[in-house]
Structure formats: structure tokens, C-alpha cells
Design a protein that fits this description.
This protein is of the alpha/beta class and about 120 residues long. The protein contains 5 helices and 5 strands. The longest helix has 13 residues. The protein is globular. About 35% of the residues are buried.
Amino acid sequence: MARILLVEDSPTDRQAIKALLDNIGHSVSLASSGEEGVEKAKAEHPDLILMDIVMPGMNGFKATRTISKDPDTASIPIIMLSSKSETSDMEWAKRQGATGYLIKPASESDLAKAIDSTLG
């Protein structure tokens, strides 16, 4: 069981993804914005972060960059979870520090595989 921080601004998506993560046995903490995600990453040091991209205020790219550049949180792997499916978005996510990328809606098995491969 991993401690996962889910950063997602949509209440519907947040609850649906949390239910999938709960179902596969992970402990889930929620953040509804990039700013809150950065704060919770520093405070909670989760095993993994699932990060949406399109959010008001600080988007997921900037939040990922902030987390991956901070020495206190740089070791936390981040998987982007977004409806953006362009190759350029995936490449930009990697340049910001993301270790993985899933396109929404992600199935329970896709989430499980991504989490397992990222955490070993």
C-alpha cells in the first residue's frame, strides 16, 4: 500500500480516481489545486503524486516543476494524469519532472500498473 497524493481540481474526477485508488489498496490524500498539491507534498511526503494538468491558478506543469526542483520533495515521483493526449504535453511533463503520464480516464488496471512500475 502506497501513500498517494491526488492533485485534481474536478470534484467528480477526484472522487472517481480516489475510489479506484482505494479499491487497489492505496492510502489517498487529496488536493484540489496545484498550490495545495505543493503544500501537501511538502507536509506529507507521499510515496507518489498523481497530478492533473489543467487547473486554475497553478497548473499541474508548474506544480510538478515546483515539487521536482525543491530538495525536500524532489525524490517524490509524479505521474501526470490528464485528458491532454498530445505527445508534446507528455514531453513537456517529463521536462517539468514527471516520471510518468496517464491519459484520463485511466482504468483501475492502468493506474495499478503505472503505480507499481513507478514504485517498483
